[in-house]
Write a structure and sequence with these properties.
Length: about 325
Amino acid sequence: MNLVKTAMLIAFMTALFMGIGYMIGGSGGMTIAFLIALAMNAISYWNSDKMVLRMHNAVEVDRAKAPEYYGIVESLAGRAGLPMPRVYLINSDQPNAFATGRNPQNAAVAATTGLLHRLSREEVAGVMAHELAHIQNRDTLTMTITATLAGAISMLGNFAFFFGGSRDNNNPFGFLGVLVAMIVAPFAAMIVQMAISRTREYSADRRGAEICGNPEWLASALAKIASAAGRTVNVAAERNPATAHMFIINPLNGQRADNLFSTHPDTENRIRALMAMASEMDSGGAQAPRPARPGSSGVPRTGSRKWGRGDKRGPWD
C-alpha cells in the first residue's frame, strides 16, 4: 500500500511540475519541467535522506560520541526487530526529531541537542521509538520524497517571478499564467504535505508506545516538545519549511492547531490517545512489550511514575 501511495505521490508531483512549467513557459517550459521532475524523482529516491539531513546540518554520531543516545536507539531497534539505523544529532535548541531513509535497511534517525537536553531518558526513548515506528511502517520514503520535491516546487515560484514575465516565451496564459504559478508554487509544499495523511502520526505514536513499552513516556515527551517548539526557533526548519512534516512536532512557530493547513495532528489529541492506550495496558486490554529493564537496554525503568514528574531535564552533557 505504501508503494502505491509513493507512486501516486511521484505521479502527482510530476504533473504539478509540468503544469507550473506550462504556465510559465508554455510547451517548452512544460518539457523542461518534465525533465527536471524526472531528475528530481531519481535523486529523491536515492539521495533524499542525505539531502534532508544536510539541510538540517545533522552530524552522524556513534557509541563513542553519544553513548546514551546511541544506546537507546540500538536497544529500541532491537526490540522492534529493525536493522540499526544511522544516528544523527542536530545542533538546535528546539527539542525535536525525525526519521528518514528509503527503507529500514537504509534508514536514519535524527534528534536535536535540545531534545536530549530537555527530556529524560524515558521521554527520549518514547520519541525515538516513534521515529523507529515510522521506519517500520515505511513512512520515511514518502516523507523524504515529499520534503525534497515540495522544496523544488517552491523554487518554481522564483523562476516564474524572474523569467515568466518575458514576452519572448511561449506562455499561453500570459501574465495571468505567471501570476497563478507564483501564487500556487509557494503553497505547493503545504498542499503536498497535507496530502500525506496525518493519521500516520497516530499510527506511529501507537506503534512507538508498543516498542518502548510505555505510552506515557511518549505522551510526556510530546507535551514538552510542543511547549518548547512554540517558543524556540528552529532556524534550519524555518529555512526549509517543506521538511516540517517529517518532525515529530511541527518545528515552525505558530502552527500547532489541528486544522486544514496543519501538517501534524493536534498534540493534545495525540496525548489523549496515548493516555487512553496506557489505561488499556494497565487494565490488561492491550498487549504490548513491557518496559525494558534498567542496565539491559540503556532505558531505565520508571515503574508507574506518571508523565510530567521526575527529571525535568535529560541526563545529557
